[in-house]
């Protein structure tokens, strides 16, 4: 059996659910990995000294150190095989991260001779630190000595991620009141803690994973158990103020200019043409941004309303999301609008054109997706989208609603710029 290796840069637990898979000893998938790396040197480095990739420990870890406070929530109902007490709840968490600036080292690596694949062996900076986590209700009360790494991936054509603080513990090593137990003797449980740089955003998460071994076979799985964020953004993103320019762009104005009062040519899948009218406004003062080396994506909550001239869609409104992709040279690349609403048939839909009667409809799910491209000569031709209506009818007697809510009919409206 080949076990997972807890390499310092391998994020083994993803932002959603995950399943671990175990390969055969000595097998080669042609990709290579951490096991194909060899350390060529390791030396102390001054706090302000630039490493071979032009980054000093001071600049690499400047946003890691500090203290912050954020709303904290956990949910244990998703793990039926585990006993979690308290099973769920909300509190406030205080986070403090300190760094020993005398501990900084530079580790240089290369691909091992005879490696399975091309290998991924960038050099990295490493420091020692301490983390204190404490919730107001005492659910968590953790103090941990940690090793923090900064790895430059640009030479491999990959984005360089901010240094995330990570460590793991067994539930019986926790100091707070949280209790997690497994009734199976052959099941091991681990909690993995991850903290974003506190100067960038007070955010983190706790991942809960378990592994069950039966004879020679082991299987594992898990997912997100707890989160905290001062901005309300997902882990790996940070909050931005929509009242201020981001990358030189006031995104609320850009959205208003494009979609505050927009009209598209529409064609239903039965061939009938119509005009589609759209209005989009920003609904909150903040948004969440995911940054990359050459671009960033801002996720913006919006209020959306639309209708068609032919009366098939009338006065539909709800909450949606605009994803704005922006190059780091302050060029806006694209807007992606998405909205999904489950609604009663009347008075929002006239479905007679597809031989459907609203009195026999349980609900309609209307999904709207539009892409608008700003960059390139063919951007206008590539822009557009569509609406999909998923229609769920009542039971045959026309009285009792169906319980499977299976879509009995799907109809679509393609959208094109005028």
Describe the structure.
- The protein has helices spanning 57-61, 251-259, 379-382, and strands at 18-20, 37-44, 66-75, 82-85, 88-111, 124-135, 141-151, 165-169, 179-182, 187-195, 203-214, 217-229, 238-241, 262-268, 273-282, 286-291, 295-308, 316-327, 332-343, 361-373, 384-393, 409-417.
- It has 418 residues and is mainly beta.
- It folds into two domains: 28-229, no CATH class; 238-417, no CATH class.
- Strands 1, 2, 3, 5, 6, 7, 8, 10, 11 and 12 form a ten-stranded antiparallel beta sheet that branches. Strands 14-15-17-18-19-20-21-22 form an eight-stranded antiparallel β-barrel. Strands 4-9 form a two-stranded antiparallel sheet.
- It is globular and about 70 Å long.
β content, as a range? over 45%
Structural class: mainly beta
Major beta-sheet overview: 10 strands, antiparallel
DSSP strand count: 22
Helix content: under 10%
Q: How many discrete structural domains?
A: 2
Q: Would you tell me the overall average pLDDT? A: 84
What is the approximate shape? globular
Q: Please give the radius of gyration in angstroms.
A: 26 Å
Low-confidence blocks of residues? 1-32
Task: Give the topology string: H per helix, E per strand.
Answer: EEHEEEEEEEEEEEHEEEEEEEHEE
Number of helices: 3
């Amino acid at each position: 059996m080949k076990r997972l290796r807890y390499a310092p840069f391998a994020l083994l637990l993803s932002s959603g659910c995950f399943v671990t898979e175990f390969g055969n000893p000595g097998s080669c998938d042609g990709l290579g990995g951490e096991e194909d790396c060899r350390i060529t040197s390791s030396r102390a480095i001054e706090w302000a000294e630039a490493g071979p990739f032009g980054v000093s420990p001071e600049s690499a870890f400047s946003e890691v150190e500090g203290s912050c406070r954020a709303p904290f929530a956990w949910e244990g109902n998703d793990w039926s095989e585990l006993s979690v007490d308290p099973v769920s709840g909300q509190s406030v968490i205080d986070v403090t991260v300190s760094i020993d600036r005398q501990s900084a080292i530079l580790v240089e690596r290369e691909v091992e001779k005879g490696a399975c694949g091309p290998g991924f062996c960038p050099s990295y900076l490493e420091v020692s630190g301490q983390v204190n986590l404490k919730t107001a209700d005492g659910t968590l009360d953790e103090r941990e000595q940690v090793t923090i790494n900064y790895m430059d991936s640009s030479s491999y054509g990959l984005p360089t991620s901010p240094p995330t603080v990570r460590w793991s513990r067994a539930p019986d090593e926790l100091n707070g009141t949280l209790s997690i137990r497994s009734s199976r003797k052959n099941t091991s449980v681990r909690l993995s803690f991850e903290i974003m740089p506190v100067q960038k955003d007070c955010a983190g998460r706790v991942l809960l994973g378990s592994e069950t071994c039966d004879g020679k076979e082991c299987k594992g799985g898990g997912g997100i158990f707890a989160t905290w964020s001062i901005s309300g953004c997902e882990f790996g993103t940070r909050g931005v103020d929509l009242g201020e320019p981001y990358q030189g762009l006031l995104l609320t104005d850009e959205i208003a200019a494009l979609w505050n009062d927009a009209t598209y040519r529409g064609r239903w899948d039965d061939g009938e043409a119509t005009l589609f009218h759209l209005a989009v406004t920003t609904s909150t003062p903040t948004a969440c941004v995911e940054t990359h080396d050459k671009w960033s994506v801002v996720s913006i909550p919006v209020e959306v309303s639309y209708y068609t001239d032919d009366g098939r869609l009338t006065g539909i409104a709800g909450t949606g999301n605009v994803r704005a992709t922006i190059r780091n040279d302050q060029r806006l690349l694209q807007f992606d609008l998405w909205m999904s609403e489950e609604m009663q048939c009347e008075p929002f839909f006239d479905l007679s054109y597809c031989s459907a009667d609203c009195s026999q409809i349980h609900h309609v799910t209307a999904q709207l997706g539009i892409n608008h491209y700003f960059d390139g000569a063919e951007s206008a031709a590539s822009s557009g989208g569509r609406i999909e209506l998923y229609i769920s009818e009542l039971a045959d007697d026309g009285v009792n609603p169906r319980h499977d809510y299976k879509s009995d009919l799907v109809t679509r409206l393609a959208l094109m710029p005028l």
